[in-house]
Design goal:
single chain, mainly beta, 16% strand, Alpha-Beta Plaits, 2 strands, globular
């Protein structure tokens, strides 16, 4: 069985634009304090919309 690839954010290049928040169908991604996006791993199902 192949393992799922969950969403991940590289804090060094994230500009906190919120585009990933808009695309995520489950609301698993939120911009944290206006600095970078953060993924709630318990909500992420690995849909691949951010690839």
């Amino acid at each position: 069985m192949a393992s799922k690839r969950y969403a991940a954010v590289d804090k060094t290049i994230c500009v906190a634009c919120g585009a990933c928040e808009t695309v995520c169908p489950l609301g698993a991604i939120k911009v944290h304090k206006g600095c970078y996006a953060k993924v709630a791993q318990d909500k992420c199902v690995g849909c691949g919309k951010l690839e």
